[in-house]
Amino acid sequence: MGSVQTPHGTFDTPAFLPVGSRATVKGLTVEQLRAVGVRIVLANAYHLMLRPGHELVAELGGLHRFMGWDGPILTDSGGYQIYSLAHISTIDDDGVSFRSFVDGSAVHLSPERAMEVQNALGADIIMAFDDCPPGRDTLDADKRRREAHERTLRWLERCRAAHARPDEQALFGIVQGGTDLDLRLASLEGVCNVELPGYAIGGVAVGESAQDIRRVVEFTAPRMPADKPRYLMGVGYERDLVTAIRAGVDMFDCVLPTRNGRNANAFTPVGRIQLRNARFKEAETVLDPGCDCPACAGRLSRAYLRHLFLSGEMLGPILVSLHNLRHYQRLMLDIHKAIREDTWSALAEAWPVTRELEPTPCTNSTQQC
Amino acid sequence: MGSVQTPHGTFDTPAFLPVGSRATVKGLTVEQLRAVGVRIVLANAYHLMLRPGHELVAELGGLHRFMGWDGPILTDSGGYQIYSLAHISTIDDDGVSFRSFVDGSAVHLSPERAMEVQNALGADIIMAFDDCPPGRDTLDADKRRREAHERTLRWLERCRAAHARPDEQALFGIVQGGTDLDLRLASLEGVCNVELPGYAIGGVAVGESAQDIRRVVEFTAPRMPADKPRYLMGVGYERDLVTAIRAGVDMFDCVLPTRNGRNANAFTPVGRIQLRNARFKEAETVLDPGCDCPACAGRLSRAYLRHLFLSGEMLGPILVSLHNLRHYQRLMLDIHKAIREDTWSALAEAWPVTRELEPTPCTNSTQQC
Lengths: 369, 369
What we know:
The structure is a homodimer. The first copy, chain A, is built from 15 helices and 15 strands. Chain A is an alpha/beta fold. The first copy, chain A, has an eight-stranded parallel sheet with strand order 3-13-12-11-10-9-5-4. In chain A, a hairpin with a 6-residue loop joins strand 14 (265-266) and strand 15. Chain A is globular, with a radius of gyration of 20 Å. The interface between A and B is large, with 41 and 41 residues.
C-alpha cells in the first residue's frame, strides 16, 4: 500500500478512479462521490476540448474549479478516444486529424496540442498522447502495433518537451505493444527510460480476451519502475484488479461501476445482479448487506430499485452507480488491508467475485456511454 | 406560522411539498431532499397503484420504508390524475373506470378503492377521492362543475366511512367548485362540515388564468377552518404562494421546481433563467449568490451547468432540481420570518419575484413528466 501526492491532496493506492469524461461522473454530485470514498477522478481531454472547450475551462479557473472537485484529477489525453470514437481522416507522425463528435468540424490533435489542452484543463496527472491501435488481430496487426509503439515513443518525447506545467502536473508515459510481449518489452524499455513521475499500461482492454489482459499485465507491471505510480488504463472487473495489484499496479480507471449502474446492473461480492429481472419484483433484501452506500445503508430493497428502473426514474441509475462505486472503493480498502497484513486468502473469502474468471470482456474506461 | 404533527414527525407551515409521484422525487436521493430542507413529500396513489402496486408496497413495509423516507408523506388520491392522464371509460357515482398507463388494462377507482390503496401505502396524510373536472370553460361547464361538486361531497362521506386507519393517517377533504365562487361556497360548506383533520383547495391550476387562481384562493382559503391545515393543491409560482399564504394557506405542492430544473430552468429571487441560453456560455456566476444549495455553495458556474445540459448529462437536471427546491424552501423560511415578525415588505424586497405577476400559467403538481 502506498500513496500519491498531488497539488490537490494525497490519495492512497491501489486507487480506483471513476470516469467523469465530460467533467462529471454521470449522475453524481461531488459530495456523493466523496461520501462513497472516491479520492481521485478521471476526466477526458478529448471530450472537454470539443465541448465546452479547454480555453473556456481555463478561463473559468481550470477543471477543478469548473466541476467543483477540489481533490486530485487525472485527464486522459485523447489518444484512445480518437481511435474508439472519432472518424479519423489522417494519422501520421505529425498527429491525428478527425471529426468532432459535437459538430463534425475538423480537429487536429498532436502531442503538442494534447499537452496544450491538458495544461489548460489543469489536472494533477496528465497522460501522454499515444498511438493506441485496436486490440483485435487484423492482417497487418503486427506492422501496425510496431508502428504504434514506435510512434508512441517519439510522441512521448514531444509531449515532455511541450509540457508547460511540469511542476504542477505530473505527466505519465504510456506503455503500448498490444498483446505481443516482445513489443511490450521494447515499449517498456523505451517509455520507462524517459524520466517521468509515473507510467501507465495502455492498449489493454481494447477488445482482447481476459486471459490476454492478464498475460500482458502480469508481464508488464512488474517491469515498470516500482518507485513510481503504475497505472493500468481502462480495467476492469474485480478479479482483473486483484490480479493487476498483485503484479504491482497502483491505479485503475473504468466505466464499469457507473455504466453498469445506469443499466440496472449491480455489483455484489458474489457477483453482479440485473435488477430488471422479474425475480427481484418482491425482493425485500438490499443490494449487499455488507455495503454502506446510500441505497444499502438506507435499507432500500431490490424491489424498490427495480421499480425505479421499470418506471424510467433517474434515481435508479443514480443509486446503483453510487452503490457500484462504493463496492469498488470497499474492495480497494479491503485490498489495502490485505497488502498491509498479507491476508489475501481472507480477501478472496470475503470477495468471492475476485476468485472467478469474469466471463464478459472488460470494457475500456473511456468509450462513449 | 404553525406546524403539523404526523406519525413521522412534525413539519412547519407554510410548507412546500416536492412531488415524488412514483415514490421518488425525480433524480434526488432522500439525503439530498433533507439537505435542501424538505420535510414532507408528496407521492401519488394513482401512479403507485398501477406500478409497482400498492399491495407490494404494503408487503414491503409501506411507502416510507419502500422509498426510504422516514419523514411525513402525503399521497394524492388519484382523482386529478384520472382526468389529466387516463383514458376514461366510464364515470358515474360508483366511480371511474379507465385504462392503466402501464399496460392498458382496465382499472376501476372508487372512493372505497382510493382509501384501500392509500391505507395500504400508509402515508401520513391521505386525500379524499374527488371528481375533478378540467378548468377550461366548455359548453356544459356549469352543469359539469355542479355535478362534480355534488359527487365530490357524496364521495367524501364514502371516503370517510371506508378509511380504515384514521388514527394513523389524516384524511383531508377537497373543496371543489372551479372558478364559480357560488359553487366554491357550496363546496366549502359541504366539505368543511365533514369533521376532518385538514382540508384542501382542489380544482385549481387545471388550466385557468393566474387571476382566476388568485380570485378563487383569496375567496376560499379564509373560509376554511383556521385551526386545521389548509392545503392548496398543485400551486405554483412564488407569487402565487405568497398570495395564498396571506389568504391563510398552509401547504402547497407543485412540480415546478423539479420539472423546470430538469429543463434547465433555474429559479432566482429576481426571476427564472434558461441555462441553455448562449448568454451563459462563459458565465462564471453561480445561479444565486444568496443560495446555499450544492451547486451554489459549491460555486458551480452557470457555464458549467449549461455545459452539463448541452452534453445531455444527468447532473444538470439533478443540480438545478436541487437548487430550485432549495429556492422554494428558502422562500418558505423567509415567509415564516415575515409571518412571525410581520415583515412582508422586507420579504418583497428580498424576493422581487413574489411581487410580479407571473406571465406563464401555473402547472398542476401531478401531471405526467
